[in-house]
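Case study 2.
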Amino acid sequence: MSADVTAVVLAGGLGTRLRSVVSDRPKVLADVAGQPFLERIFDQVRDCGITKVVVCTGYMAEQIEQLYGGKYRELEIVFSRERALLGTAGAVRFAYDLISTERALVLNGDSFCDFDYETFYTAHIEQDAEASLLLTYADDCSRYGSVAIGEDCGISSFIEKSATAGRGLINAGVYLINCSLIREIPPGRVLSLEKDIFPGWIGRRFFGHASARPTFIDIGTPQSLRQAQALFESRRSS
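Prediction:
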């Protein structure tokens, strides 16, 4: 399940909404319960049995590179540093040559979602998917936007932030994408996976899978950072 997968972690964002509380480092290095948040993602990748991770860096990239070098525990780390920010899709495409496997597990470096990797991977293979998105339920979708899927779990639409409120499925920031599809992303352009690329994949073998585990947290704002802190503090003490 893991031999043909490289993890790609998106860690180049500016973190402008978090500057009031995290100003001296990239947001993925924000301290959360005594550990840089990025290490929570690395540990999750290790738990999946994946041995290589490509970290897409940009803002304050040198801090991440100096902290980890080429290794974190058993993980091999390779850095893909953008000289100018390319957006989430542009970053993944820029890292393409560093992905040495058939598939990439793409994760947002500023969000965390519990999920069953074996189930997610198996569904991707059984559906002969080109791309699979991990989805989770949120009580209020207005901050994130929502995702609609059909009976076969094929993604049918994306609904913008603030366009809908109430409980629904949201993008959990975890994607399993065949590298043949990544290669189709136009190189050298500023592009968003969520806004520019994913809508164009509707109608292809593009599926969404709801996580059976409810925990989803991000650190994009001071409030959500505090929530992440509380979550991982409770896990550390239990």
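The two ends are 30 Å apart (CA to CA).
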